[in-house]
Amino acid sequence: MATEQKREPHWAMVIDQERCVGCWTCAVGCKEINNEPLGVWWNRILTASPNEITGEAAAPSPAAPASDNIDVPHGVFPALEMDYIPVACQHCNDAPCLRVCPVGATFRRDDGTVLIDYERCIGCRYCIAACPYGVRVFGWGQEKRDPDFTVGYGRDYRTDGGRLVFTPDRPTGVVEKCTWCVERVDEGQQPFCVDVCPTGARVFGDAGDSGSEVAGLIEQGGATRLLPELGTEPRVFYLPAKPERSLS
Amino acid sequence: MKALTRRRFVQGAAGAAGVLTVTGGLRYLDDAAPASAGEIRGTETLFRTGHSNNCDGACGHQVHVVDGRIRLVQGAQWDQTTIAGDAAPQYNPRACLRGIAQIQNTYSPDRLKYPYQRVGERGSGRWRRLSWDEATSIVAENLQRVQQRYGRKSVWIAPYTGSLAVLEGVVGAGFRLASVIGASAGDFEGDNEGDSSTPAGWNYVLADPDLTAGGIFDGHEMTDFLNAKAIVLWANNVAETSIPDWRIIADARKAGTPVVSIDPRFTPTSAKADLWLPIRPGTDTALIDGVINYLLLHKAYDAAYVKQYTVAPFLVDPQTKLFLRRGKSYLVIDAADGQLKPVEQAKDPDLYGEHNGAQSALTLLAQAMAPYTPEKVAAMCDLEPSQVLQLAELWAKRNPLAVRAGFALSHWGRGDLTMQALVTLQSLAGNIGTHGGGITTFAGGLTTTAFDLGNWWAPKGTEMFTVLEPMDACGAMLDGKPYPVRAAWFMVDNFAQQMSDRNRVVRALKSLDFLVVSDYVMSATADLADIVLPACTYLEKTDLLSSNNYYLQYMPKVIDPLWESKSDLDAITLVAGKMGYGKYFDKSPDEYLQEILHIGDPKADPNVRGLKWEQVTGGAPHLNTPTVPYVAFANKQFPTKSGRIEFYVERLIEYDQQLPGYKVQLEAYRENPLAQKYPLTFLSTHTRFRTHSQYVNLPWLKEINNNGEGFLEINPVDARRRGIADGDVVRVFNDRGQMKVRARLTEGIKPGVVNCYQGGWDTIRVKHYIEGHPNNLTHQIANPTQSVIPNFRSNAAYYDCLVEVQREGA
Predict the structure, then answer these.
(1) A246 occurs within a structural domain
(2) Which chain B residues are within 8 Å of A58, Cβ to Cβ?
(3) Mutation test of the interface with chain B: which of A90, A199, A202, A203, choosing the one with the most B Cβ atoms within 10 A?
(4) Which of A106, A192, B504, B688 is least surrounded, with the fewest CB atoms within 10 Å of its CB?
(5) CA separation (Å) from A151 to A104, A168, B691?
(6) CB A169 within 8 A of CB A150
(7) What pLDDT score was predicted for residue A55?
């Protein structure tokens, strides 16, 4: 990977909520490429209202509990708002999951990708409790898949001195999550969610390269991160949708 | 509301993990056995194909196959050039969640695996497995027996739109079979059960059926929306139902193009739009009339365009209401000298000319539209007058303005009138045949003109099949009108669930002497069959997709047919052979495609002229469209009698619809006395989780979509009045039928309107609603006006439907 001549990239992802229409294609693509079992989602899309991230959002519909459902807008007819927050591993600079892991199974590569070594994980699930974003999933050994054969990347991937960071059938009793498709990114491809996003809402790249699109989008201002007050410093940035809409 | 909390994310995670129990009890017939499970290792092969499953996306798929099994589906690249080598538009790879989930669809445990024959009562769900030889012999014998007894047309072939490919589906081999055996068949345009009324209205104004072999329909290539200065999404939830198209709308928005969403529901599209108009459903024509009136009053129309390309200056005889003619010439007043003369001799045809009481078409339009003031329109459409004005001003100021009109507008009894009004409006604005303008509901209509479909459907020595519309099918089965139909063959067509007035449909199908259904799942229609034949999905057969865009997408056989499934073409070939017509089905799919595409024919249609077979199989070339991106009528030559846009429609005088003044719908309108009993307008819209009744039962999609269970969207105002709480089981009913489903309270729907996503299964084994299906409520009331356009002469008005809702047990 990194050589003395070449600077290590510092990966980041930007999600443009103005473009995201909550279609879940990224999440279904994630399931396919990673051979995720039924009921397991490394990537989910919350239905929110604009600026929910920054706290300036309209009140949820009084028609509770429907407003917890997807595609149910906030507000009262016809003054409505609706937006989407795709949530997967935030690849935090200061990741609580990594801090609590007693065996060093969760680690961060030099390029910022937070990964789990499936051979080292002991299934204690401290990380699931620690993660404020709810993006980690535990394999109980009861998982079913459909189709009942392996789909997606389909083979093991090791990195950083042979650590097993992807395997299509995760061993029972380990925690799994989004890897930013490290096996693809290392070969110069995009994470699959970026690749399949039908609206071009996801941008992935080297934030350390000031000429990259991802750096430009972060630099231009207005990008927010989830739960910034926790100081986790996610590497996933959200460009909020325009709160005001008008024809001019 | 406070900022996001940690609880918000963790709750969501619990929700996601809580849906593990999704697959119980839904397996059909034999257990799933797509060979043995195991590690995929081996050589990876990549295929490019087109996703033909009857959504208007027409995505290109890159399919990864390892050792004969599909491992991954993603968007594929498009050729950068046309057939002739000119530059094609920049078109991104496209796929949506349904396309990616196709891997579950093809390997689904719900797949029909073998031919079966019914052994119990029709619809009892008891079957006996057959060999293909036995099954096709039974089909051949029964079709022959029925034809001998009741006449050749008494067999109805329904090769529908479960697929939009060429060899199978909407223009597919079923029609060839119908011609060969002299049967009737659903016609290739009108068979889109609810998609015919707006095309009819488009033809009224833009294309005379006598000059276009019964009617045509086309739009603008999607990339042309980047040329628009404003985009109006009329009853079109692009962001949910044509997701990859949203990328282009989003690009346009980013460049400063405002986007309007007109929809009674607050959809993902409305959420992103710069203006949302929550219109009262069914009143769209009035809103269009209001905009027309504004443009005429404020002289904000494109006068030069109107003068040159429309019938605006033509004088209309007040007695006959026909255009004043001298010989073949249309008469106008020449503003240069005030004289009456043929239009081609007038220096400056007067838009508001008058002669002996004969007024110009534009004058008559202005008179007809005058009542539609912002205040009146607002009251009719349940909008604010300021909203009507906002839309009208947008039309006046932003040029060109592009409209995407959803097929939702076509699900109304008077969808024809709505489209007639919309075309009239767009012609006043100079937006027909103009880059960045137009009205696009469907793009890709060149298929029907550029290809040799005539010989494909009726090979030499046979006569073209007799058209029997879906709207006429039940009458033919139940009452023998217009002639008796006693046997039917449905091919990837879930007529018993997806056609309106379903109770009547089921009665009609049960009355048949013989029913054969080809499908890849055990559909509600297959439940009623005498013989079911297992069909392939699009990945298991060779075909070509050229619909909904202007590319040719070859569909190679990516994997061998699973279990004993066969392509419809293979099934038809077997049956035709046993009926003695084997000579008409003696070619391979590639050979048929070469004929249909005019490969090597120097007189081929210009759009495909010079096409080489290697171009077809080697990529996805763009047609040689007259302009890139394609724009319907870019040459401003209109196939009408006058050669102009005929917003004054002589053909409709007998229906008093020569001008597009608002008329009430057939059922769902406020003034209808029936609304006292059934006050709610019932919509049955699409969702991103299915394409009609396809994909509904796929676990990945069900997990995100309420476990696949249908629900009724109802505004809390309407719910409160009926004592309905979120999650309550409700009965939705009218005089035609009922369904039961849970209520979902949402502010995202207009009061007075309820919605239940259509397409969920109501089969013997799988029920996505508690009882019934939305089509238990819809009707088959036809609008006779449409009959003037033969290719679009009847339409199922799914949304033109009134219901009442009650809490179950109340």
Answers:
(1) no
(2) 1
(3) A199
(4) B504
(5) 29, 8, 23
(6) yes
(7) 57
Is A130 an interface residue toward B (CB < 8 Å)? no
Q: Where are the domains of chain B?
A: 6-106, 116-193+456-618, 222-441, 674-807
pLDDT tens digit sequence for A56-65: 554 444 444 4
B545 closest CA partner among B444, B625, B450 = B444
Structural domain including A95 reads 11-239
Residue A76 to chain B, least CA–CA distance (Å): 6
Amino acid letter, residue B47: F
Within a domain: residue A245? no
B789 burial via Cβ count (<10 Å: 0-12, 13-18, 19+): buried
Q: Which residue has the tokens 């009737």?
A: B184
What pLDDT is recorded for position B26? 29
d(CA B411, CA B420): 15
> Which of B478, B438, B407 lies closest to B758 in space, CA to CA?
B407
Instruction: Test B716 with A62 for CB contact under 8 angstroms.
Output: yes
pLDDT digits (tens, 9 = 90+) for B272-320: 999 999 999 999 999 999 999 999 999 999 999 999 999 999 999 999 9
pLDDT of residue A51: 59
User: pLDDT category, A153, cuts 50, 70, 90?
Assistant: very high
Question: Which residues numbered 97-126 in A keep a CB inside 8 Å of some CB on B?
Answer: none
Distance of CA A80 to the CA centre of its chain: 27
Torsion A200-A206-A210-A215 (CA) sign: positive
Of A28, A33, A55, the CB nearest to B3: A55
CATH number of the domain located at residue range(s) B674-807 in this protein: 2.40.40.20
The CA-based angle B438-B439-B442, given to 5 degrees, is 120
Q: Which residue has the higher pLDDT, B170 or B561?
A: B561
User: Residue B706 and residue A69: Cβ atoms within 8 Å?
Assistant: yes
Subunit contact A19:B746, Cβ cutoff 8 A:
no
pLDDT over 60 at B139, yes or no: yes
Q: Dig out the tokens for A33 from the structure.
A: 């490429």
Asked if A55 is an interface residue toward chain B (Cβ–Cβ < 8 A), one would say yes
> Quick one: CATH architecture of B222-441?
3-Layer(aba) Sandwich (3.40)
* Number of domains chain A contains: 1
Residue A69 counted as domain residue: yes
Residue of B237, B746, B755 to mutate, interface with A, max A Cβ within 10 Å: B746
Do A63 and B716 make contact, defined as CB atoms within 8 angstroms?
yes
DSSP letter assigned to residue B790: G
B46-88 tens-digit pLDDT: 999 999 998 888 999 999 999 899 999 999 999 999 999 999 9
What are B101-124's pLDDT values in tens digits? 999 999 999 999 999 999 989 889
CATH number of the domain encompassing residue A167:
3.30.70.20
For chain B, say whether A161 makes contact (Cβ under 8 Å). Answer: no
Position A247 scores a pLDDT of 79
Size of interface A-B (CB pairs under 8 A): 259
The CATH number for B116-193+456-618, chosen from 3.40.50.2000, 3.40.50.740, 3.30.720.120, 3.90.1150.10, is 3.40.50.740
**Euclidean distance between CA atoms B724 and B718, whole angstroms:** 8
| Structural contact between residues B210 and B788, judged by C-beta atoms closer than 8 angstroms | no
What is the pLDDT at residue A67?
42
What confidence tens digit (pLDDT) does each residue in B445-462 have?
A: 777 778 999 999 999 999
CB–CB contact A18 B11 (8 Å): no
B63 vs B635: CA distance, rounded Å = 39
Domain membership of residue A66 (yes or no) is yes
What does pTM read for this prediction?
Answer: 0.95
